[in-house]
Design a protein that fits this description.
By secondary structure, this protein is an alpha/beta fold. The chain has four domains: 80 residues, no CATH class; 80 residues, no CATH class; 124 residues, no CATH class; 110 residues, no CATH class. It has 14 helices and 16 strands. The longest helix has 20 residues. The protein starts with a helix and ends with a strand.
Length: 431
């Protein structure tokens, strides 16, 4: 199961994207070999060792494992990771001269082995030293009010390091991660959302995933999780968007594994893992908005299930989609809805499933504010066309999809096609 998902991840990963795999000792060597085969050894970025337990379990044989690994791969070589958030003691940052750039600390300008030149202090004292900067750089810092002379102008010059700049710069991430919440804390997070019930017994902590999101993505990226479990990734994307004022989106994938009938999850009505994940996303989003007061935070999501076509017969030719759509049968599979078919049409045409879909009238759907209109009525005549254009309220419609047997007559079908052409509609499609 892991091998095909990793191959798919390789194909989906952008050139500047990265992939994180959390794994324990039992599977580490196998996964490393598989990743080297799929991504190439040169695409290996690093291996973070994470302390996952704060307390030691003494039930193990010989040694108690308290760590796990996070393997990092990219599609291409180069600097793909962002800087990690810096640990900063803000109490050390002061602003004695009311610099408009805010609080700062000072750092020594001297450096053994650096450029050698003479500096005159404000009191006239000449200091001949080896310096951190070239002389040209030093004078640029001086002109920018970044040089401070301690001891009333008698001391060696020091340069200002501003708090805001330190926060923006971050630090280079390293391979040891011990300041992130443990898995015990992750369990508390689940219980907090689910009325103190352990609905999922192997969650990851939110701040771990948020940390990886910051390392491997930018403000408007899509975060993809192939093994979403309890949907910690969605929870973390919400938190990250709130804290960094970003607009990341997520795609979570999870096989609907059944829950143990003796578990708290099953007793609470969650028959599979997917149901747990969906409910966590709902509850986490509501809780974050409630606690932050930020009602503008986007915590919406859509759920899709991989299945066969919604039409009784549809064997599409991916190289000739229009003919496939035209030749498709007219009947929707029992148990499926008109909205299910609308999303399938969006998929066939490569439209993002996050685009807004609105049922503007009975069995007439507007996608992306009218750029695509899907009409699944069985009584279509020219009056329906006038109704559609009134409902989309002047939007520029580029495609309209109808049921092939939904027209009242062949003449209506012909007239409607010509009417749409006159209105500037590029594609007239029947299914």
């Amino acid at each position: 199961m892991m091998y095909p998902r990793l191959k798919l991840a390789r194909n989906l990963l952008t050139d500047d994207g990265v992939m994180f795999i959390s794994i324990d000792d039992n599977e580490f060597e196998n996964i490393k070999r598989i990743c080297n085969e799929i991504f190439g050894e040169n695409s290996f970025i690093g291996n973070i060792v994470r302390k996952r337990r704060q307390s030691q379990a003494n039930l193990s044989k010989n040694i108690s494992p308290i760590h796990e690994y996070i393997l990092i791969y990219g599609k291409t070589e180069g600097e793909l990771l962002n800087r990690a958030p810096a640990k900063i003691d803000e109490s050390k940052y002061k602003n004695p001269d009311n610099d408009i750039r805010g609080p700062y600390v000072t750092m020594p300008c001297t450096n053994k082995g650096g450029a050698k030149y003479s500096i005159k202090t404000p009191t006239g004292k000449v200091i001949n030293e080896e310096w951190r900067f070239k002389e040209e750089t030093y004078w640029k810092l001086f002109d920018d009010n970044r040089i401070v002379f301690p001891r009333n102008g008698e001391g060696k010059p020091r340069y200002k390091l501003f708090l805001k700049e330190k926060q923006q710069q971050g630090v280079l991430p390293n391979t040891w991660l011990d300041n992130i919440s443990s898995n015990q804390e992750a369990t508390k997070e689940i219980k907090y959302l689910f009325d103190n019930k352990l609905i999922f017994d192997t969650p990851k902590p939110v701040d771990l995933i948020e940390y990886l999101i910051k390392l491997g993505s930018n403000h408007n990226d899509i975060v993809l999780d192939f093994f979403s479990g309890s949907a910690t990734t969605a929870n973390s994307v919400f938190t990250s968007n709130l804290n960094s004022e970003s607009n990341r989106k997520f795609i979570l994938i999870q096989i609907p594994e059944t829950t143990n009938k003796k578990s708290d999850a099953y007793k609470a009505g969650y028959e599979n893992i997917c149901e747990i994940g969906k409910e966590r996303i709902r509850r986490a989003g509501e809780k974050i908005i409630e606690e932050s007061g930020n009602k503008d935070l986007d915590v919406g999501f859509k759920v899709f299930k991989l299945n066969s076509s919604n039409l009784t017969k549809w064997n599409p030719d991916v190289d000739n989609l229009e003919d496939s759509l035209v030749s498709a049968a007219d009947n929707i599979v029992e148990g499926r809805s008109s909205l299910d078919l609308v999303y399938e049409i969006m998929l066939k045409y490569g439209l993002e499933l996050t685009l807004p879909v609105e049922e503007i009238s009975k069995d007439i759907f507007s996608v992306a504010f009218g750029s695509l209109v899907v009409c699944l009525r069985d009584d279509v005549d020219e009056n329906v066309i006038h109704e559609i254009f009134e409902l989309v309220n002047g939007s520029s419609v580029s495609r309209v999809v109808f049921k092939d047997n939904g027209f009242k007559s062949d003449s209506d079908k012909t007239n409607i096609k010509e009417n749409l052409r006159v209105h500037g509609v590029d594609e007239f499609i029947t299914i």
